[in-house]
Write a structure and sequence with these properties.
This protein is α/β, with parallel strands linked by helices and 319 residues long. It contains 13 helices and 12 strands. Helix 3 runs parallel beside helix 8, helix 4 packs across helix 6 and helix 10 packs across helix 12.
Length: 319
């Protein structure tokens, strides 16, 4: 018996992958956007196995679970469903809305969920990879599905079908995500990553889902039935958690964030300040910024600093 982890990709890729392709470069009026996109991906030569290509806090925890013995499968907006050893390039595509690289721009459906599902179906045309195939190829195994809502909704129809025919059940599948409305057949497999768990699991809310999956994974013994163990560990989290305290922080413009970062970098070595630590320091000073937004600003600023004179960037950022 083996445990399989099905989780999402990340927007951050290793800097050693020099070339990067962007979904925004595909016209929304293209006859077949998914075909155009896959052709672009197929022409890339700067590649790494998926396990080694992604970066960030979420991915660090994914690699922890993989090192502990899990087989890894990745739900990627750019590549579709891939394994850990699939070689990929650096790319920018997402199932999230309000992003210039969102796959949703190609479809006229009313809601984001349906748009994303259309893309998922299109990008898998002519391919054998599917959630169903993973389950049928590994009967008797255990499956951990750790996905944010927009990504989980993409594969929900496949999961629902498998649950309806008895392939997925509460003894072999454990779904970790933030609060959402799953189909009835999957509710018994669902474990909500509550923000109240942050203190016990550590880290930020951005990686809370995968941290919950890692916590359960590390405490699991495959020599005994898994369901009672998962229930016991999850209930212990519920009992041991306290309601999170919400702090009203001052909202920051992009320029405010850049100025803060430059001030901190003036007194430090660039490579020694992680995104998480820098954001925590800013929040501790009463300033607020969403993690993904802060990470994007910080990454772009580091590239600019690398390519130009630091003092000039600092001067322009504060002008």
């Amino acid at each position: 018996m083996k445990i399989h982890l099905i989780t999402n990709c990340t927007s951050r890729k290793l800097h050693k992958l020099t070339s990067k392709v962007h979904l925004k470069d595909i016209s929304k009026d293209a006859i077949s956007p998914s075909e155009n996109w896959t052709k672009i991906l197929s022409k890339q030569v700067d590649l790494l196995p998926a396990l080694d290509a992604y970066a960030g806090d979420h991915w660090a925890k994914v690699k922890d679970i993989e090192r502990l013995g899990a087989s890894l499968w990745i739900v990627s907006a750019g590549y579709g469903l891939i394994s850990a050893d699939t070689k990929i390039c650096s790319y920018n595509a997402t199932f999230n809305s309000n992003d210039e690289n969102s796959v949703s721009k190609f479809y006229s459906k009313e809601n984001l969920k349906e748009k994303n599902r259309c893309w998922w179906k299109d990008i898998h045309k002519g391919r054998e990879s599917s959630i169903e195939k993973i389950y049928f190829d590994h009967p008797g195994d255990i499956f951990f599905i750790a996905l944010p809502p927009n990504y989980l909704k993409v594969i929900e129809p496949e999961l629902d079908n498998l649950a309806s025919c008895g392939v997925i059940n509460l003894h072999n599948t454990y779904i970790f995500s933030s609060k959402q409305d799953l189909s009835l057949s999957l509710k018994e497999c669902f474990y909500q990553a509550k923000e109240d768990f942050c203190e016990q699991l550590g880290g930020s809310r951005v990686s809370l889902i995968i941290r919950l999956a890692r916590y359960i994974f590390k405490g699991l013994s495959l020599k005994e039935p898994t369901y009672p163990q998962v229930q016991k560990m999850y209930n212990a989290l519920l009992l041991g958690s306290s309601p999170v305290k919400h702090i009203n922080r001052r909202k920051m413009t992009d320029k405010n964030v850049i100025d803060f970062i430059l001030t901190e970098l003036n007194d430090s070595t660039l490579t020694k300040i992680s995104t998480t630590k820098l954001l925590k320091k800013m929040r501790d000073q009463g300033m607020g910024c969403e993690h993904k937004r802060f990470s994007k600003i910080y990454s772009e600023l580091l590239v600019e600093i690398k390519n130009t004179n630091f003092r000039e960037v600092s001067k322009n950022g504060k002008s």
